Amino acid sequence: MLVSPVTHGRSLERMGVRTDEPVNVGRFSEGQRRFLEFHRENVFLERRSGRSK
Question: Rounded to 5 degrees, what are φ and ψ at 33?
Answer without folding.
Answer: -60, -40
